[in-house]
Write a structure and sequence with these properties.
Helices cover 12% and strands 17% of the residues. The protein is α+β, with helices and mostly antiparallel strands and 58 residues long. It has one domain. The protein has a two-stranded antiparallel sheet. Strand 3 and strand 4 form a beta hairpin. The model has no long low-confidence stretch (mean pLDDT 91). InterPro entries: DUF5522.
Length: 58
Amino acid sequence: MSLQDLKEKEDYYYNDLGYRVFTAKYLLKRGYCCKSGCKHCPYGYDKNTDTFRRNNVG
């Protein structure tokens, strides 16, 4: 999926600082965790501990 295929407000939004923030819907559609500590990570990844919380997906 290229950046041109993304839909604003569905796949991402811009925060108050102007950064693009991906939605949980998009992150699930992408299909994997990037381990970047995304704000809406549906996979339960915790960047501080480098671990995944249980039972967040499916």
